[in-house]
Amino acid sequence: MDPSTTTTTTTLLGTVWTVSRWALGLWLVGGISVASLVAAHQEGKIWKAIDAKLTWWGWSKVVWFNVFWCGCCFLGSTAIVARYIFTLQFVTTPYRLARIQMADQAHYVSWWTAHFCLTVLIGTVRVQGLEHLPPLVGIVNEADEEAREQQQQQQQQQQQQQQQQQQQQQQQQSSPSNKEQNQQQQQQHYDHHHQNNNSNNNNTTIDPNHPPPNNNDNNTNILRHRHQLPAPVYIANHASQLDVAVVYHAMSPTRRFQWVAKQSIAYLPGVGQIAILAQNILIQRRSRSSRSSGDPTRHQTNRPKDQTNRPTTSTTTTSSSSSTSARHEHLFAQSNRSVSQQGIPVLFFPQGTRWMAQRLPFKDGAFIVAQTNQSPMVPMSIDIPVGIWNSPHPLSLVLPRWLLQHWFGKTTMDTKPVITLTVHPPIPVTADSNRQALKEQCQAVIYQAVPNILKVERPPLEEEEEEEEDQHKEDNPPTTKKTE
């Protein structure tokens, strides 16, 4: 080989490696930094609405919480993919079984990351009602599950062939003129059907809880804990980004579940890779412009009078409705497959967004999934103390009390804050259940264990006291006594 060609190839490969390394570093550092700042801004708005503004210490804790979370998830996802490549699992293990194994590993990484971030930066989590979680039925071999699904597909094909034969027989009786051709076709279908019966021997019924034995090698046997079919549907209130980490304290590393989250997190460093490996259900949320364009009567009162009765075009409505139906089909298809076939629970935040200043009503997604599969619903209440970000933890574990009071002032949260997670008894759901009544029941159960922050009276500020006194003087001017 020409030395000049070798030098050129080496230089090109070195340039590609350098550019790729810088691009990866920029995406990792820039993505984590931007995501952490955006999360801190959103948390600031949430806590400001309940008169608990974040201090400089609270802002820094939100940023570091997201940095630790993204960093741990990135390291974990990189280790999972590297293990899949260097152990040659893409050669020895079918892709479907390897995806299930990587999903279990991604769940363990998320579980460990949640415990690490909460313990180091936030405090402790007290879990109540763990006995209300549905029990696991046992360990399932995914290779056996795959063999069972193949047998079910073969049975469906045989049933379709039998239906085709019955239709052909009916056609033969109605048209006796084509007797010879019909006899030949019938003989061909009969021979094909007889060969399938002799080769498959699928006349026995299949129990989903006891799949047939697998004849594959031990390398393809992937064991997984599974719930009883159909799996439960978990729902919880959503007040802060801490809720995502708190829920993992109720689940063990073997109790895998799937999130329903917005699709934009797939682009975050670390978090997106773990969400994809864990096979979480990612949906695309509509923007404000699409929501306003999809509803022709939205903000109709703000329009001029000559435009209120003007008919709207059906193009925007049709496009928005079609995109909404596509999102719903994607959500319900993945949720139904996880709950009814794979035995994996699905967790919803039915509020749709996180907010603490108001008890938002629940949306229909989780209840439609539970009603379709007749899955029990397990409500969970997350009680986050007010001002938890501003607490001096973890500095309160190492610094003296007088120094903490000098930096943070006299605060009541000078010890380790405690977040309370309450697991309520499961609510049975049938196909005939009233969805609105079910939503109201779940709202009452979840919100009764969470204090209503709006009802907590805070002491008035000095400026407000002066304004109230001035207003009282204006309303009630001083009266002079009449002299006799």
Protein architecture, described:
With 484 residues, the chain is α/β, with parallel strands linked by helices. It has 15 helices and nine strands. The chain has helices spanning 3-48, 56-86, 89-92, 95-122, 142-174, 179-200, 242-247, 271-277, 288-294, 305-308, 314-342, 365-373, 401-408, 435-448, 462-475, and strands at residues 124-128, 136-141, 223-227, 233-236, 258-262, 281-283, 346-348, 377-383, 418-423. The strands form two sheets. The protein has a seven-stranded mixed β-sheet with strand order 1-9-8-4-7-5-6. It has a two-stranded antiparallel ribbon with strand order 2-3. β5, α8 (271-277) and β6 form a beta-alpha-beta unit. α2 (56-86) crosses α8, α5 packs antiparallel against α6 and α9 (288-294) packs across α11. The N and C termini lie far apart (125 Å).
In short:
This protein is an alpha/beta fold and 484 residues long.
Features:
single chain, 484 residues, alpha/beta, 7-stranded mixed sheet, two-stranded antiparallel sheet, disordered C terminus
